[in-house]
Amino acid sequence: MNGKMIAGIVIILAALVFGAMTFIESNVEYMDFAKAERVNKKVQVKGRWVSDRETQFNATTSQFVFYMVDDNDKEMRVVLDGGKPNNFEIATEIVAKGRFKDGYFHANEVLTKCPSKYEGDGSAVQKSL
Amino acid sequence: MIGAIIVKIAFAATIAAMAFYYLSYRRGSEELLRLARTFYLTAAAGILAVAGVLLEAILNHRFEYYYVWNYSSTDLPLSLLISTLYAGQEGSFLLWGMFTAVIGIFLMRYSSRKGYEKELMTVYAAILACLVLMLVVKNPFKFIWEQFPGELLKAGEAPPAGMNFMWVDQARGLWSQIPVEGKGLNALLQNYWMVIHPPILFIGFTSMSIPFAYAVAAMLKRDYVSWIRVATPWTVFGSLALGTGIILGGYWAYETLGWGGYWGWDPVENSSLVPWLVCVASIHTMLAQRKNGSYIKTNFVLSLFCFILVLYSTFLTRSGVLGETSVHSFVDPGMWVYWLLLAIITAFGALGFGLLFHRWKEMPVVPVEHTLLSREFALFLGAATLVFASIFILIGTSSPIITNIIKGKTSAVDPSFYVTTTLPLGVALALLAGLGQLLWWQRSDMPTLLRSLRIPVLLSVLFTAVTAFLGATHPAMIIFIFASAFALFANLIVGYGIVQGNPRLAGGAVTHIGIALMFLGFVASAKYDDVATVNLVQGRPVSALGYTMTYTGYKPQERGRFAFSVEVEKDGRSFVVAPVMFRENDEGGLIRNPDIVNLLTKDFYVSPLSLEAGEQAEADQVTVTESAPVSAGGFTFRYLGYEFAQSAEGGNVVRAKIEVESGGKREVVVPVMNNRRGEVSFETATHSSGMTLTIARMNPVKEKDRSSVTLAVGGVHIHREAEAPAPDTLVVEASVKPFINLVWIGTGFLIIGFVITIVRRWQEALRNAAWK
């Protein structure tokens, strides 16, 4: 094995280790609110919007505030940096990415999952008759 | 009905073409070859006919077809109506198949002149067969009553007059009601990008299959050397088409979808970037192989991966495996796509890599004869860096699958993963893009290299110093800017020399100038952008980021959209931007489209967030706080406080004590709010003047003098005149993206460079008709 070969292998290994470390570090894990409260890192929580609680855009801080329950029915105040996400009201499921801060969940991104258009949704066809 | 039949005919013809091409290859029969060509042309005609039939159904609003009903509607303009042809899963496979079929006709003629037709077209027809198979399995001509039998199918008595219906089986008295309107195209897709972006992207996808087909054909022919020359023009064409498609997608996201930037590291974007990087890497190693004969196996591996990665990309974004980790809330297409795509990837992977394994031993090994200071080595390092970048992006994009396998739970990586991993590679790429142009083939001697490095390095240092002075002082950015500037100046100098000699050889220099400009644009516009959320009260100018913005009101536009006009002023020049917001449909979400002021050195990007209606002073309401009396309509209201009590029935009773002063007379009135197990009721109190007071809202606060109550006033008008409603507030996110034009100018150079290279390699391939 010559020097070039060794240098090549070292570079490849270094790149792989670097990639793996970055991967673990930036992997945004799924968890519920209870666990998210314990770990101090960016996580994502899946759940549903609580439509009958305070839901509003605060224009002074430009944050969107709403309540969300996770899959274990734990309710949490979520403060999102930015405006109301697209399709927020009709989403069947939402995913908030962020971290805990002073008793609320500070999200920098909220994804919405819309009702599937591929489902045999008979109500849509009846509307268009 | 006819469409579904043609799909099956086209599929059969494609299979026949593949079989006869293969037989003609095995037996060397020209007669079978002619038959194979006929079948291929029949298949291509069939696929075009399928598209024609579907297009006819869309244009004539034949909502008896589920696909037409699901993606189009009667209110779409012609261009968008045509684009619904590929708006859905089935249609996009049709578009892909259509391009594959048509490009195959050119490929057939080109490869026959190179003696490659039988092998190449066997593989290519197999690829086409898989795309058509998708249409056979997921038929775009499914009738709507097959989708909704419960809602639509009726039997027995004939339909009432005036109803839109079709007989399903007249003999058995079976009929179906037909919708008169379609569900329409997703509002996010309703703009001109939808007309041009998918076709270009799918031409890119199609052209990625050509290097794969050539690699397999070359291995079948045991031609490990000259296939490179035959395949290169197509590989560069693939990079051009896919690259253009990716950039257009980025521009779409920036200009219309309002992602705030042109790149979001979204799985859909990433998964087409990965095969592009690999394809570009293969251009470099092919060039090295032309020069010194080495990197034979590398070129096979990379060419095979171009197409396998396109298939994997399709699998990632279409099969639903990414789940809710993608911004594109893709719908779950069902298990059929999942397994079919997996089977296709496995089949082509096994074909390509199985053959490679089989031929591995007999491939000539050409010892690498160049030194570290040679252009070949720079090409190799550049390709290796591109491959590393593609691996990192691939791993990040596949993170939902990886975490699912390891932890049993899907989760994606944060976009920062891609920035962290690709930034060092970007620096390496930029340095190599400059260095490679200054190095000679085979070997360069150090003194000559140092001499040629002098000017570009000097210029780059100056350039970096200027940008640092302007504020780009982040250490990683200083390095990246220096490397990109070096690539730019080195290629400008080398390119100038080439253009003086033979401009047709300038492809490489021009492409690398484009890449360098794009890198500089990325740094400026993504790292040094300025963002602010601004509340624009109608008619009131607000200053932010050095601009003065005034919201002047909104105008309704076509198809239920609203444009919000904002006047933007800077240094005496003024512009009007009109970002758009609208509801997708009755129950749909809010769609926001940004608007941009394009300046030479920057973009001013205005993205709407919301419109807050001004609070209307309700004519007959008054809000009183304990500490502050309010006068209106000749009365002075003073809030003395509230009493809280339990009612006999077990509820709460709140009595608000209001002192009303009029004409020097004071009188206390007590409106009441009852709350019994969540049921709230009010008791109106009447003043001696006949004025009635009812509690509208209460805000009881424990702190002294802070409680307030809002009262609805009846019997008299307390406000002299109806006050003008308060103006609306438009909330926008404004951002300044410096030098974003560099990204677009760089893209232009990149495309021109690719075109120059294609022309050069094409002519070269045509001149050498001797390789058989």
Write a short abstract of this structure.
Chain A is of the alpha+beta class and about 130 residues long.
Task: Tell me about this structure.
The complex is a heterodimer of chains A (129) and B (772). Chain A contains 3 helices and 7 strands, in the order αβαββββββα. With 129 residues, chain A is of the alpha+beta class. Chain A has a domain at 31-113: Nucleic acid-binding proteins (OB fold (Dihydrolipoamide Acetyltransferase, E2P)). A 5-stranded mixed barrel of chain A has the order 2-4-5-7-6. In chain A, strand 1, helix 2 and strand 2 (43-49) form a beta-alpha-beta unit. In chain B, the strands form 5 sheets. In chain B, strands 5, 6, 7, 8, 9 and 10 form a 6-stranded antiparallel beta sheet that branches. Chain B is globular. The chains are: A alpha+beta (129), B alpha+beta (772). The interface between A and B is large, with 45 and 57 residues.
The radius of gyration over CA of chain B amounts to 34 Å
How many helix segments of chain B?
20
Gap from first CA to last CA of chain A: 75 Å
Low-confidence stretches of chain A: 116-120
Residue share in helix of chain B:
40-55%
Class by alpha and beta content of chain B = alpha+beta
Output the strand order for the largest sheet of chain A: 2-4-5-7-6
CATH H-level homologous superfamily name of the domain at 31-113 in chain A: Nucleic acid-binding proteins
Number of separate structural domains of chain B: 4
Shape of chain A: elongated
With helices defined by DSSP (H or I, 4 residues minimum), what is the helix count of chain A? Answer: 3
